[in-house]
C-alpha cells in the first residue's frame, strides 16, 4: 500500500478474497465505507485500475489481480457561521452547558453537502460560546440528532464539561428517552432490541442490523395503541446512527413517516406527517461540573402533536 502526496490516498493491493466476484462499484463501496454512487463516480473519474488497466463500474473482480484505488481527498468541512435558527429554543443554560430543543430540519453542526440551518449557527447567533475541544466545525457537540428528529440536545460550553459529557455518553450513563409513533402494534408491548448496526450493504446511506456491526441496544414500551399505529417510549443504551429507526424497522414497525426505512406513505399522508415521527423527549445526566442530577423534558412539536390528535379522534 502506498500514498501519493498531494494526489489523494492511493492504495494498491491484491483483490481481497471477500470481494472476489463482486461488481467493482459494490466492492469499492464496501472496502472503503463509501456509497455505491460515490464509488461509481471514483471509477468513472479513472481512479480505479485492475492490473494497470481501466475498468467499468459493473466489471467483476477476479482473484489474483492487482487492484489500485485513488481516493480523492475529502472536502474541507464548512465552518459554523452565526445565523438565527427559527424555532430553536434554549431550555437551560449555565456556565458549563446549554440544552436546546432542536426543531425539525436542523442538523447539529455543519457538514459537507448540508446547506440548511445548524444548532451551532443558532447558538453563535445568540452569542453563546461553546467549548473548542474537538474539530472546529463540531465545537461543543457531545451527541447528535438526525436532521428530521426533533427534541433535546445538550452542548458543552466549558472544556471541562466537554470532557465529562463525552465520557458520560460513551459510558452510557446518560438517560436518553424518545417518543416515537410506529406503524402497527409491537408484540410484546414492551421489550428490548439488542441487535448490531452497521452501514446497509446497499451503500445507499441507510443503516441496518448487520452481523458484526456495532453493539446497539434499544428498550421500548407502548404508551398508547391506535388502530394503525402505536406511541412508544424508547430508551437508548447506545447511540448509533439511525438506531431507533433501524431497530423499529427491523421489528417491522417503522416510525410513521420514515420512508427511508419502509414506512407506509399513505398513513403518513393521512396524518400529515412529513418526516419520521420521532422526538427526543427527555434527557438526564449528572451535571458535568456541579455533580447533581439534572433532567430536562420537551413537548411535542406541532406536526407530531397534530398527527397524534388525528389518531385519537379516529
From TrEMBL:
Gene3D superfamilies: Pseudouridine synthase, RNA-binding S4 domain. SUPFAM superfamilies: Alpha-L RNA-binding motif, Pseudouridine synthase. GO terms for molecular function: RNA binding; rRNA pseudouridine synthase activity. The active site is at residue 146. Keywords: Isomerase, RNA-binding. SMART domains: S4. It catalyses: a uridine in RNA = a pseudouridine in RNA. It holds the Pfam family PseudoU_synth_2. GO terms for biological process: enzyme-directed rRNA pseudouridine synthesis. Its EC number is 5.4.99.-. Residues 22-78 form the RNA-binding S4 domain. Responsible for synthesis of pseudouridine from uracil. Belongs to the pseudouridine synthase RluA family. This is Pseudouridine synthase.
Amino acid at each position: 500500500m502506498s500514498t501519493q502526496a498531494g494526489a489523494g490516498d492511493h492504495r494498491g493491493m491484491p483483490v481481497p478474497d471477500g470481494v472476489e466476484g463482486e461488481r467493482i462499484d459494490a466492492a469499492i463501496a464496501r472496502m472503503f465505507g463509501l456509497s455505491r454512487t460515490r464509488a461509481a463516480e471514483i471509477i468513472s473519474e479513472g481512479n480505479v485500475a485492475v492490473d494497470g488497466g481501466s475498468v467499468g463500474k459493473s466489471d467483476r473482480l477476479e482473484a489474483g489481480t492487482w487492484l489500485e484505488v485513488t481516493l480523492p481527498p475529502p472536502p474541507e468541512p464548512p465552518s459554523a457561521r452565526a445565523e438565527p435558527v427559527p424555532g430553536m429554543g434554549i431550555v437551560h443554560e449555565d456556565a458549563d452547558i446549554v440544552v436546546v430543543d432542536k426543531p425539525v430540519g436542523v442538523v447539529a453542526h455543519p457538514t459537507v453537502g448540508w446547506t440548511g440551518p445548524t444548532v451551532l449557527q443558532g447558538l453563535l447567533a445568540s452569542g453563546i460560546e461553546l467549548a473548542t475541544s474537538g474539530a472546529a466545525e463540531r465545537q461543543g457537540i457531545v451527541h447528535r440528532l438526525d436532521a428530521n428528529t426533533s427534541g433535546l440536545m445538550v452542548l458543552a460550553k466549558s472544556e471541562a464539561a466537554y470532557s465529562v459529557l463525552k465520557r458520560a455518553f460513551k459510558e452510557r450513563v446518560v438517560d436518553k428517552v424518545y417518543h416515537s409513533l410506529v406503524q402497527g402494534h409491537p408484540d410484546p408491548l414492551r421489550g428490548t432490541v439488542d441487535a448490531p448496526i452497521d452501514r446497509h450493504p446497499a451503500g445507499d446511506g441507510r443503516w441496518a442490523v448487520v452481523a458484526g456491526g456495532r453493539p446497539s441496544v434499544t428498550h421500548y414500551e407502548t404508551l398508547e395503541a391506535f388502530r394503525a399505529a402505536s406511541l412508544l417510549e424508547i430508551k437508548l443504551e447506545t447511540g448509533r446512527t439511525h438506531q431507533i429507526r433501524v431497530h423499529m424497522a427491523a421489528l417491522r414497525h417503522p416510525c410513521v413517516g420514515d420512508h427511508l426505512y419502509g414506512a407506509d406513505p399513505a398513513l403518513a399522508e393521512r396524518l400529515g406527517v412529513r418526516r419520521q415521527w420521532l422526538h427526543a423527549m427527555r434527557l438526564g445526566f449528572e451535571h458535568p461540573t456541579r455533580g447533581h442530577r439534572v433532567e430536562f423534558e420537551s413537548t411535542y412539536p406541532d406536526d407530531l402533536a397534530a398527527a397524534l390528535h388525528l389518531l385519537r379522534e379516529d
